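User: Run a structure prediction on this.
Assistant: Running it now.
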Amino acid sequence: MGPGLPGAPTAWVPGPHGLVPIYGPDERALLDAEAERVRARRGTVVGTLTDVGPDGLAGFAYDHEDPAAVLTVDLFVDGFAVASVRADAPRAGHGAAWSARRGFRAAAPAALFDGERHVVQALARRADDATGVELVGSPRRVGGNQVPDGALVHLDAEAVVGWARDPDGGQPAVHVRFDGRPLAPVAADGPRPAGLDGPATGWFRVALPPHDPARPHQVQVLVEDAQVAGLLKEVRGSPRALAEPENRLPRGAIAFVTPTQISGWALDPDVGDAPIAVDVHFDGAFWRRLVADQEFAALVHQPGITSPYHLWVVDVPPELQDGRTHTISVFAVNQPEGPNPELAGSPATFRSATNTPPAGWVDVANHDLIAGWAYDADLGAGPVEVEVWIDGALWTVVRADQRRPDLVPVVCPEPDHGWSVPAPEALRDGGFHTVRVLARNHPGGPAQELSGSPRELGGLRPWLGVGVAGAPPRGLRVTQVAPGSPASEVDLRVGDLLLAMNGAPAPVDPEPFARWVQARTPGEAVALELERHEPVAAPREDELTPEAREALARASAPDATDPTTATLPDGRVGRFVPEGGAARQEWTAPTRRTVHPVLVPRAGA
């Protein structure tokens, strides 16, 4: 609680969602003053980029705290500055109100309509500000080819049915592969079949060739781009199997895309940790088959993946670094032979003649440390300059040159792009503060606010959304998990036993646990070590202890009505439920796991 803020309320009264605090006039005045400080620190510039077209780039922007001020709007295309205009033009349909003269308009660059894909940004700033606030509707993507879309909706022994469309217009061709063999392409031009959900038009039905219904078969559906011949996109729900397949599908994703390097991962559960190949296509044409066998350290953090050696890397050919938009499509090569599914994130687009905006993340922002990572593909291995703003003022600039091996190759091809700085003493006064972090763009253009920014400290309290009760002598028993809470997001369950928090043993009293949560920072990920009893098969007769046999016998008696329980030396717990002269056995065993819920800010948490 910050200096000057009121203490406990004078009274509590029932409200629609529980008890509501009632403050006296003096306390209310202090609360209102703090709310005003909070509102001011959150910024007062508002506006929208409304139009991007041949008639120009237009919108409105103003400072609702200072209506007389005229803002400057900086406009960028593909990260390059194209205009700076004053937001003092009339806005159609707004009469004589002061806000009617807060519009802006600039001529659209001719290059914006060259058929390539472009990104338009608009940032508004006061006269004395070095950086602007990005307007609603910015960034706006215009032009370029959009990949087709579709879905495999129904499959039976006779035919496959689905829909496909190309957002750019035209009639896309649908390619069906049955057990890897291509069937004749068909047009997606039919009406929606009765009883199926989806768009009204753009449907297809493809009869399957004669086949043995007793054997498993795989059906794969891809839609071809109407503008780029050969560019295929696998539809949702594909591949799909007729009967239970013996061949499990490979999986993977495109993880990192720049105009010079593209990488991702692929694996096949049928071959375990052994590497598999991927087929790479540029602009719909086959380019090369690569082996996904390089190291991707972060992969082992995904469920079911035990080896990091499933990375593939593509150095973009020089002839494709020509300033035009290109696509890369990647398909995993099935082992053993079967359908080759398209990787997640495919197809992806890239273009060399753009100012690639920097990317990054604020991993932590609390009263002690502000840290994260930042990377700009236009700088390559060079470090990005990171601006740290506190309460609307630039506090410091740091270089993102610290070693972060976990970034490779998800966000950059080398690891030296981390940054960190001790938090200033001003953040420790207990009041409300905002922390913003931006990466400076190279070679120019607007600074990019990092993901996870802004962070608010002190104004809102951290919330986990879990209720606990003491479970001496081992820790705390989870008694409640709020829907939609951080606890529910990591699958924390009622009945779990909380053993440790951030590596320290959990108390057996709920009150210290509540104080520990409130001492954290919104946005912080905490480590909770849990013990959970999972269902297991019943033990063999010779594994039962005398106590367990006695409990089973009592529950099996003809007149038994109450369940009995027993615990084996290895921790397995049996529950025996009477069922008229017999007993149903329900066995569980303790398992350990660590979850990392991210605390979210919530008023009065």
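Residues 462 and 515 are 11 Å apart (CA to CA).
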